[in-house]
């Protein structure tokens, strides 16, 4: 009897999975549901700051249907983690984006909003909670170390979050994102800055915006235009890390 009950339960689950097949086309079709499918698998984590003064205001925005913006998680300054959207579903947090060959990061990422105005350091409790959440996400979804990015990285010129206050180096030390320290190898002069930036993943249609995004992440104290030779060397180092070499 236990075997029969287990078999029956498996059949019920299988049929339930097959039955949930919405039809979108207006063409006459024969519906024959297959059990062979899965939901989307996130491969990136995109980090944001909310620009708000309180987590309550951020939460009101992220749950307002009229605003049409969301994230999978919101982390308050006190370290409170609020779960908003199923990790397997597509949240609306990144908009028009580009990184490497990916042009729709919403469909491939988990979005995390950090309650912060963009003009203040990130609270210690908030960063600690973020590191714990990232460790959990990385382990469960097997997200590559290089795929922890900022909104400004994937939307240069359009977005600047998380701000230059964000502790990217601390995250990289914990295994979330890349970081390189000098000394760096010299990059030949004939290799253009845009070539280096594009090789890492940046959209370089507007070169200055890609440079600004790179500096915000890896050289936040440098507000000058253009890349220094040291920064070019850092870019090459980051590319090698990304490629596993």
CATH fold annotation of the largest domain: Lysozyme-like
Net shape: globular
Helix content: 25-40%
Instruction: Return the CATH architecture of the largest domain.
Output: 3-Layer(aba) Sandwich
State the domain count: 2
Mean pLDDT: 90
Termini separation comes to 57 Å
Task: Give the full name of the CATH homologous superfamily of the largest domain.
Answer: Peptidoglycan recognition protein-like
How large is the radius of gyration? 21 Å
Please mark out the parts with pLDDT under 50 across 5 or more consecutive residues, or reply none.
1-18
Provide the succession of SSEs: HEHEEEHEHHHHH
The main β sheet shows up as: 5 strands, mixed
Output the number of helix runs: 8
What is the total tally of β strands? 5
Approximate strand percentage: 5-15%
What structural class is derived from the secondary structure elements? alpha/beta
Strand order of the largest sheet: 3-2-4-1-5
CATH secondary-structure class of the largest domain: Alpha Beta
Task: Characterize the structure shown.
The chain has two domains: 44-173, Peptidoglycan recognition protein-like (Lysozyme-like, 3-Layer(aba) Sandwich); 193-242, no CATH class. It is built from eight helices and five strands, in the order αβαβββαβααααα. It has helices at residues 2-19, 55-62, 124-141, 151-154, 168-173, 193-200, 207-218, 229-242, and strands spanning 44-49, 73-75, 81-83, 109-114, 148-150. The chain has a five-stranded mixed β-sheet, with helices on both faces. A hairpin with a 5-residue loop joins strand 2 (73-75) and strand 3 (81-83). Residues 1-18 have low confidence and may be disordered.
């Amino acid at each position: 009897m236990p075997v029969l009950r287990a078999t029956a339960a498996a059949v019920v689950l299988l049929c339930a999975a097959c039955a949930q097949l919405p039809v979108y086309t207006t063409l006459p079709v024969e519906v024959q549901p297959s059990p062979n499918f899965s939901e989307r698998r996130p491969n990136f984590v995109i980090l944001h700051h909310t620009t708000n003064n309180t987590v309550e205001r951020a939460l009101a925005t992220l749950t307002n249907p009229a605003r049409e913006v969301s994230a999978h998680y919101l982390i308050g300054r006190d370290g409170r983690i609020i779960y908003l959207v199923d990790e397997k579903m597509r949240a609306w947090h990144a908009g028009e984006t580009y990184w490497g060959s990916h042009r729709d990061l919403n469909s491939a990422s988990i979005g995390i909003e950090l309650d912060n105005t963009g003009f203040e350091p990130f609270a210690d409790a908030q960063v600690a909670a973020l590191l714990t959440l990232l460790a959990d996400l990385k382990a469960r979804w097997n997200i590559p170390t290089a795929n922890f990015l900022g909104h400004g990285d994937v939307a240069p010129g359009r977005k600047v979050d998380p701000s230059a206050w964000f502790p990217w180096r601390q995250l990289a030390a914990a295994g979330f994102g890349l970081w390189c320290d000098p000394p760096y190898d010299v990059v030949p002069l004939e290799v253009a800055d845009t070539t280096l930036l594009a090789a890492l993943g940046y959209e370089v249609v507007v070169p200055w915006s890609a440079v600004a995004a790179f500096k915000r992440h890896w050289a936040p104290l440098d507000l000058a235009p253009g890349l220094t030779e040291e920064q070019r060397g850092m870019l090459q180092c980051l590319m090698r890390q990304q490629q596993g070499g």
